Amino acid sequence: MEEIRSRSGRFHKVFASVLLLGAGLSSAPAVDILSNGNLDAVSVSTQVNPSPTGWVLEATKSNSGEFTDGANSEPWCNVRDTGGYGVFFKPFQGNVDSGDLLSVFLYQDNPATVGSKFTLSGFAAAESRYSGLESTNDPAPQTLFMVLFLDASGAVISSNSLDLIAAGLPTGGPNSMAEFSMPEVVAPPNTATVRAGVAMLNVYSTSGQQSFFADAFTLDATLSAGAPVIDVHPEDATVAPGGSATFTVRLSNPSGIRYQWQHARTNLTDGGNIAGATTSTLTVSNASEADIGKYRVLVTNDSGSIFSNEANLATVGIEFSPVIQLVGKIGDNYRIDYATSVAPTTWIPLSTNKLVSSPQALVDSHWRESQARFYRAVYLP
Ligand SMILES: [Ca+2]
What we know:
Blueprint: H1 2-22, E1 31-32, E2 42-43, E3 51-52, E4 56-61, E5 65-66, E6 71-74, E7 86-89, E8 102-111, E9 117-126, E10 142-150, E11 156-163, E12 178-181, E13 185-186, E14 193-203, E15 212-222, E16 230-232, E17 237-239, E18 245-248, E19 250-251, E20 258-263, E21 266-267, E22 274-275, E23 281-284, E24 293-301, E25 304-307, E26 311-315, E27 323-326, E28 333-339, E29 348-354, E30 360-363, E31 374-380
Parallel strand pairs: 17-26
Antiparallel strand pairs: 1-15, 2-3, 4-5, 4-8, 6-7, 7-15, 8-14, 9-12, 9-13, 9-15, 10-11, 10-14, 16-19, 18-23, 20-21, 20-24, 22-23, 24-25, 24-26, 27-30, 28-29, 28-31
The chain binds calcium ion (CA).
């Protein structure tokens, strides 16, 4: 299912760019940009039980902090696509008497261009004694669809929500799940990321029939007209220390595009072993440990800007060697022996060392000549 959806997404993106170039329409058709929006692909990540793959599930309690069982994927609260999963939210993990209220936010981040328009839709329902239906405690429970916009540093610059209780959330359990749509929201200046999902805030245990459920989200995006459209994202690279790696981005509308590559979300400039920091291809030469990590590029034109996916740079051939640390009186002599097995033990001298510091470190760079090595230090009077 996931494979089909992702192919479908690519097709729509190409289709949109053709329309922009050919017919000069003022806006592209809306496309669903969520991955695994139906929540049917599940895996174990930060929670005890499986949760939707490609989504972040954050759960906290107001007194006891981070929490690991605020919600999980279950087949019996699935809607629309047969054989899939929905998400079972667990308000009963909160406790109003001790003030330890549960908050859970299930969301997915996607790159977004300034001026693009987004509409979030999804299915939800509660049970009849769901604490989110009450407003007796402070802070009051909230049950929300949310669309947030974040800048390039990850700071939230705009927050939009739909109050599902006010919108008439059904209370007949999973079988009563109904679809809700948020009003369209527009990505403000400095937007780099759109974060969309569902939040259950400040809830607590009642007695039975108290859960909340959500499933089958879509986030329809209408890209700002003429904004950059990335066709080919940079790909992961692995190099030997001292080697070179290149990262390339390709756009369907490259005219007038400005590029800014980042390493670990920090802007790069040309110089040293970095070249092409403001072009479509970044070159990292003479790669060392300092260069490993995530690379991405911000592409900008007069109609907007968007980040590429992140590509990872890894190095191969890192050397590990045993370090023997001698501790003793300065000026004393020790002999380090090694053996290749403990029974029987045959000690072979490795080196003789006079302590000039304590501790004093000795690296055995020849350890690969044996399958295993055991060490001892012998005091030499
Ligand atoms: Ca589902």
